[in-house]
Design brief:
Blueprint: H1 8-14, E1 21-24, E2 28-32, E3 40-46, H2 61-80, E4 85-88, H3 92-95, E5 104-108
Antiparallel strand pairs: 1-2, 2-3, 3-5, 4-5
Bound molecules: guanosine-5'-monophosphate and zinc ion.
Zinc ion (ZN) binds next to α1.
Length: 117
């Protein structure tokens, strides 16, 4: 099971693996997805290794709010203000999570289908 030592997003947060960073502070990082599924596709992650949204507790509420609002702010800056975007958290196998470090996807710049496959 992936832990901090072999977690690709922990390595990106630590600067060990490069990424196209959009924003960074002491508790979070935003960067462009390496395999974009839309003209705008970036991820916002906490620097702390939280596996997924199911692991979050009440104390994580403020952090989750900050991650969400940062995704919104960046989406605006990248031109999605008028046309909108999709803000997504995949979780575990049914949710299609492939990297076990909490991340919010933001996809925009094209019309997305609903429901997802
Ligand atoms: P998940 O499927 O877990 O919700 O999303 C993981 C996302 O991380 C995928 O969209 C994938 O393209 C992206 N990703 C995986 N490895 C890397 C990487 O090394 N760098 C970047 N920038 N994105 C990655
Ligand atoms: Zn991690």
């Amino acid at each position: 099971m992936a832990g901090m030592d072999d977690c690709i997003f922990c390595k990106i947060a630590a600067g060990v693996i490069p990424a196209k960073k959009i924003f960074e502070d002491d508790e979070m990082l935003a960067f462009h997805d390496i395999d974009p599924q839309a003209p705008v596709h970036f991820l916002v992650i906490p620097k702390r290794h939280i596996k997924n949204i199911m692991e979050c507790e009440k104390e994580d509420g403020a952090l989750l709010g900050k991650l969400m609002l940062k995704a919104q702010e960046i989406a605006r800056k990248l031109g999605c203000d008028e046309t909108g975007a999709r803000f997504v958290i995949n979780c575990k196998s049914d949710g299609g999570q492939t990297v076990d470090h909490l991340h919010i996807h933001t996809l925009g710049g094209r019309k997305l289908e609903w429901p997802p496959g």
